[in-house]
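notes to self, project folder thing:

trying the whole complex as one job this time. last attempt i did each chain seperately and stitching them together was a nightmare. two parts in total, labels are on each line so i dont mix them up again. if this works i'll redo the older ones the same way
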Amino acid sequence: MVPEKDFRENLFFEAVREFWNERGRGARYRLTTVGVSFFKDKVKLGKSREENIESFKKYLIDNNYCKTIEFNDDEFSFSVKINDCCLMNIRKQYEDKNMEILSCPIANMFMYIYELETGMSPELLPVEVNEGQCKLTMGKMGTDKVTEVE
Amino acid sequence: MDESKEKILERMKERKSIRDYKEGKVSEEDLKLILECARFAPSGENAQPWRFIVVKDTENKEFLAQISKNGSGRRFTGEFLSKHMQARFAGLKDPEKRKKAFKKLTSGSVSAFVSQADLILIVCGKKNVWDTPYDTSAAIENILLAVTDLNLGSCWVIAPCIDVRDEMKIKEHFNIPDDVKVVSIFPIGYPSRIPNVRPRIALEDLVYNENYGNNYYKKEEAE
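result (full assembly):
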């Protein structure tokens, strides 16, 4: 029997790695919409950002993409802590190959939800992975006000 | 090196990234010459996948400036929040200069200048060929050298199209079809300030002899 999940995960990782080999660091900017069209088909989006974030979180948990999600919003960024994400095996392959994580479909959808409200595309910061938890932090938009808080 | 050979290098050094422009129209004759130079760039299988959009309309230029500003600002704000920018500028000790540099980058103003120029060229590439990134890059270098030779200025700006989300906005605004990608944009106009030549990595650190890492030039030869 073909270990289908392993195969799919490995294909995803290898496709991203080959893209990295071709495009270098710029590859991450070409992957910022990966997963969005899929999630848009699955999650009914409303008008408010808060409502959309809750709908997306509920969809992810109800459908076993992960166990828990913690969302935090501050002035210049927002972050999402995801426990036991179904993509963790793919992330481990990045780690094993000493590659930075270039893209996260779940982060992409959160960024899309944010952009729906503001018209500004957020920026995914380096993903932090710790013992079954991913911390996704996204800069909301370009602003020099951020330098005032250094 | 004899004088005529040195001229080649001097010409290359004169090409600068111009971010400050003064009033003045680029003539149709000059524009056509620039575009003619672009189309004679090398191209795999002679596919010539490059396509160019000339943007002169003020609102369209402002649209590109805003997307460029957002793209650069977003990226550098991300670098600031992740502390990568602070690490990159660790050598800059003067707190005022440091803050000024951070503000300039995070605001996106480093790319927002494009609308100052008389016109903006959008360089696009057809996807259904083998070598679009390389072909269009060769055409772009021809553009930049031609611009320099005409005493005009330009700057290779990728901020508004490096992120696929921004590229989609440009494609929608300028009716660019799905089978064509936006490669970069180029403001073209008369420079009001010409920056100094940026530091370059020495040849001794760039060129290898037969095997990667085995220096071809010794320090004194490279100089």
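what i see at first glance: The two ends of chain A are 55 Å apart (CA to CA).
need to look closer tmrw
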